[in-house]
Design a protein that fits this description.
Helices cover 64% and strands 0% of the residues. By secondary structure, the chain is mainly α. The protein folds into two domains: 47 residues, no CATH class; 208 residues, MetI-like fold (Orthogonal Bundle), CATH 1.10.3720. Helix 1 packs across helix 13, helix 2 crosses helix 13 and helix 10 packs antiparallel against helix 13.
Length: 292
């Protein structure tokens, strides 16, 4: 009786290749981390100075946590200047200008992106040329117009010039071009007019870019200093950026802890707006770069 030996076939050995260590990624992360520390360090020093005693702000090397936390600096801010009025004025101006730009810029961008009229390209080129003119050049004629219209020392002098933004028109136009025209054709078949297409098709599809424009406008208006300093003279109508200079006192002898507390409170509204809506910025800018 013969027996056959069973042969067991083994699978071929799989060669495992070790992945090289990502030195490039590590170096890039180290550089970005170092840059982030350099950018965040001044803000941490301001916050530390706001919640600590004034003498602790001059300690070397600087402390990142106050040794004796206190809220006295914040109380001193409201005791020395009408800080609540400055915050309210800045918030009012930022909200009104932001809403105004969303309306005017979106309507102008819709016209440049979707409508056909004589001289459209020339007019758009003239609009873009305004981006190359610094604001300091137009401040004198703008101030003269404000005085002649009787708007000097009023918030209208800050709101009306900010209702149109050439960059906002350009940004929205680039985004509107990427929206398929088939949606408009279908709406026209159903009897929709131009305003209905703008209101019910274009705007609902443009949420990210509108949010981006709102963030940029809000931050820009909140940080304005030069123009409010020129057209507003009454202290109770001033904005937060100009009001902060009052805390410096004569010859810059104001308490550093009090100034740091005021700066901390001024940063909070902008920081909240940016953190809540920052995800829309990259999304909208990437979309506007698809077509030019």
């Amino acid at each position: 009786m013969s027996t056959k030996a069973s042969v067991q076939i083994l699978p071929p050995a799989v060669k495992t290749s070790r992945k090289p260590f990502p030195w490039t990624t590590l170096i890039v992360l180290a550089i970005l981390g170092f840059g982030a520390v350099l950018m965040i360090a001044p803000f941490l020093w301001i916050i530390q100075s706001a919640f600590g005693e004034t003498r602790e702000a001059f300690v070397l090397p600087p402390r990142w946590l106050p040794a004796h936390p206190t809220l006295k600096n914040f109380q001193d801010v409201f005791d020395q200047v009408p800080y609540h009025l400055f915050m309210f004025n800045s918030l009012k101006l930022a909200v009104l200008v932001t809403l105004g730009q969303l309306i005017t810029c979106s309507m102008a961008a819709f016209a440049f992106a979707r409508l056909q009229f004589p001289g459209k390209n020339i007019l758009f080129f003239v609009l873009l040329s305004a981006l190359m003119v610094p604001g300091q050049i137009t401040i004198v004629p703008l101030f003269v117009m404000i005085r002649q219209l009787g708007l000097y020392n009023t918030h209208a002098a800050l709101i009306l010039p900010g209702l149109i933004n050439p960059f906002g028109v350009f940004l929205l136009r680039q985004y509107f071009i990427t929206i398929p025209t088939d949606l408009e054709d279908a709406a026209r078949v159903d009897g929709a007019n131009v305003f209905t297409i703008y209101l019910r098709i274009i705007l609902p599809l443009s949420g990210p870019v509108l949010t981006t424009l709102a963030i940029l406008t809000f931050v820009g208006v909140w940080n304005q200093y030069f123009f409010p300093l020129v057209v507003i003279n009454e202290p109770k109508l001033q904005v937060i950026t100009v009001g902060l200079t009052l805390l410096r006192g004569q010859f810059g002898a104001g308490a550093l802890g009090t100034i740091a507390a005021a700066l901390t409170m001024a940063i909070v509204p902008v920081l909240i707006v940016f953190l809540l809506l920052q995800k829309y910025i990259i999304k909208s800018i990437v979309s506007t770069g698809l077509k030019g």
